[in-house]
Amino acid sequence: MRLHVADHPLVAHKLTVLRDKGTPSPTFRQLVDELVTLLAYEATRDVHVDTVEIETPVTTTTGVKLADPRPLVVPILRAGLGMLDGMTRLLPTAEVGFLGMQRDEETLEAVTYANRLPDDVSGRQCFLLDPMLATGGTLVAAIDYLLARGARDVTAVCLLAAPEGLQVVEEFVGDRADVKVVVAAVDERLNEKAYIVPGLGDAGDRLYGIV
């Protein structure tokens, strides 16, 4: 597993406002969208491209275009949905799949309640979207879904990660696939309720309210 922390003043600024408990939901949603676009820039550094020849108004030259098969973007519902627009802004030709997963607050295990993924994703670059990498259980389950369908190149884009969760993901992945985790920051630890500290609270609730 490879870890990339986006060390940039704009990332740090937006993350600081997201952490503030006084930031209202509309502002929170807008900042998540902006922050994910910045993280997506880092996450797509190794996106596959093909060389093409084009005609400019002046001459002939070569450039690149996104290669086939198209990348697959997978937000983990519900909080990951708030990251989708920011990601597809940079990858507008990507296909989108969905995984509905939630953490059982008693066992802290990930429970899957919805799955809209292709049966075969062999040869495709896959991008998972989940705001918080806390215990690692949800992300591990999502990665497992993709690996079982043939994926070998998976990038997870998260706002925050806890060291405990990163360790769980690293141990799970091993050398089975090329997995990269792109985050705005790695925080201190998990608390007794498995929330990231200092964190920003429950990302889903702050995006969409408590339902």
How many individual β-strands?
13
CATH topology term: Rossmann fold
Rg (CA only): 17 Å
Counted by DSSP, the helix tally is: 6
The general outline is globular
Helix/sheet category: alpha/beta
- Low-pLDDT segments: none
N/C terminus separation = 35 Å
CATH architecture: 3-Layer(aba) Sandwich
Question: Key features?
Answer:
13 strands, 32% strand, Uracil phosphoribosyltransferase, two-stranded antiparallel ribbon, Rossmann fold, 211 residues, PRTase-like, PRTase_dom, alpha/beta, 9-stranded mixed sheet
Describe the structure.
The protein is of the alpha/beta class and 211 residues long. The chain has a single domain, classed as Rossmann fold (3-Layer(aba) Sandwich), CATH 3.40.50. It has helices at residues 9-19, 25-43, 84-88, 137-148, 163-173, 203-208, and strands at residues 2-5, 49-55, 60-66, 72-77, 95-96, 98-103, 110-116, 125-129, 132-133, 153-161, 178-186, 189-190, 196-197. The strands form three sheets. Strands 1, 4, 5, 6, 7, 8, 9, 10 and 11 form a nine-stranded mixed beta sheet that branches. Helix 1 (9-19) packs antiparallel against helix 2 and helix 4 packs parallel to helix 5 (163-173). The radius of gyration is 17 Å and the shape is globular. The two termini are 35 Å apart. The mean pLDDT is 91.
